[in-house]
Amino acid sequence: MESTLKRTWAEIDLDALAHNYRVLCSRMGPGSRFLGVVKADAYGHGAIQVARTLEELGAACLAVSSLDEARELRSAGVRLPVLQLGITPPEQTDQLLELGVTQTVWSEEAAMAFSREAVRLGKRIKVHIKLDTGMSRLGFPCDEARFAQSAEAVTRSCALPGLEAEGIFTHFSVSDEDDPDSRAYTLLQYERFTTMIRALESRGVRFALRHCANSGAVAGYPRFGGDLFRAGILSYGAGEQAEALGLRPVMALKTVVGAVRELPPDAAVSYGRIYRTTGPCRVGVLPIGYADGLHRSLSNCWRVWTPYGTAPILGRICMDMCMVNLTALPQLREGGEVEVYGPHNSVNEAARLAGTIAYELTCAVSRRVARVYRRGGREVARELLLR
User: Fold this and answer.
1) Do residues 313 and 290 make contact, with C-beta atoms less than 8 angstroms apart?
2) Which among 21, 39, 126, 185 is annotated as catalytic?
3) Could you confirm whether 123 is annotated as catalytic?
4) Which one of 6, 43, 254, 271 is the catalytic residue?
5) How far apart are CA 10 and CA 14, in angstroms?
6) What pTM value is reported for the model?
7) Taking the CB of residue 319, how many other CB atoms lie within 10 A of it?
8) Is 130 assigned a catalytic role?
9) Is there a smaller number of Cβ atoms within 10 Å at the N or the C end of the chain?
10) DSSP sequence for 95-130
11) Which among 72, 76, 96 is positioned nearest to 86, based on CA atoms?
12) What Cα–Cα distance (Å) separates residue 278 from each residue in 77, 260, 285, 322, 372?
């Protein structure tokens, strides 16, 4: 690392990403292709480098959640088909067309609005129909009370001028939960999805791409593969199911020991004085805090990994720094590297302690943290996106 970046950084292992890609593709079978989810800057890993790698590996397409995310990919030369999973104002249809982005359609009203704009521009826009099978977020409702109404609405939407209805999909809400009630609900969602597809086919409406398998379904229900599978967090080797599938963490969040302090007994450490030393204590000050993405909720309960053992965090995590106990690690000196989470220090465990999920912790790694991309044991790219 150059001195200008050797504060706090995230190492992104592109070999681990490739390994995870191959494992997931083999799990889902040859009939289902990989849809790389790179929204939220590829869950904090860096959308451009991840997308380029997935393109090289043979992914079928990519998914984002905003028009700006799609524009970033296109500006970087990524040519794979891109599906916009989120809401785009219909008045931005011209930009969707310019970028060659496929748009999610979640209601008949939205379909009509995109149709009007496409017709006005004299073009056709690719869309994927979103079904709400029980997430209650976006989509045509597929519960029993509204099923027939939605089937008619989807049929009318797909017949609108200016729209090319390429795909249809849904999203599971508890496919990553293994209790009987959650499994039953996931099966109900899948039944609603497939029943709606059959109902639409009976009306002459067919789709080239059908997809519903998110990370939870990839792990627990590989038979739901369809034409595409959306292994979001699993692609990055994180999430509760990743280890059991033999997936590797792609991100290692690292920092250095910036300073070492020798504190006497009963010294208060950090804001709020929630930690006091019980004896002479060798304390390391790390230049990483909640502004870098290290959640304050991990104060006084998480640790960092070092080659000599782990060092617990002492007291509250500050905006730009935190303190760790180095009393039992005399070998670790100023400038020594430590791992906040990564292959030696699971982000999943950190998430459990923080009362959240791994997604939030990787997405939280801020833009002032440099991303350093490695392949074949060497650095191949780096990004520092401060504006």
Assistant:
1) no
2) 39
3) no
4) 271
5) 12
6) 0.95
7) 12
8) no
9) C
10) HHHHHTEEEEE-SHHHHHHHHHHHHHHT--EEEEEE
11) 96
12) 56, 18, 18, 19, 39
pLDDT for position 83: 98
For residue 143, report the phi and psi dihedrals to the nearest 5 degrees.
-70, 165
Rounded to whole angstroms, the Cα distance separating 130 from 379 reads 40
- For the stretch 28-32, contacts whose Cβ atoms lie closer than 8 Å and that sit 24 or more positions apart, written own/partner, are 28/213, 28/218, 28/222, 28/225, 28/229, 29/222, 29/225, 31/225, 31/227, 32/213, 32/225, 32/226, 32/227, 32/228, 32/229
Phi and psi (nearest 5°) for 6?
-85, 70
Please write the tens of the pLDDT for every residue from 281-292. 999 999 999 999
Provide the token pair at 16. Answer: 């681990």
Structure tokens at 205: 């409406």
Decide if 213 contacts 229 (C-beta within 8 A).
yes
Structure tokens at 198: 């059959």
What angle separates helix 47-57 from helix 14-28, to the nearest 10 degrees?
Answer: 50
Instruction: Report CA torsion sign: 3, 297, 50, 90.
Output: negative
For the record, the structure tokens of 150 come out as: 């939605």
Mean pLDDT computed over 109-116: 98
DSSP class of 261:
E
Contacts within 8 Å (CB) and 24+ apart, 3-8: 5/370, 5/372, 5/382, 5/384, 6/256, 7/255, 7/256, 7/258, 7/287, 7/288, 8/253, 8/254, 8/255, 8/256, 8/286, 8/287, 8/288, 8/292, 8/369, 8/370
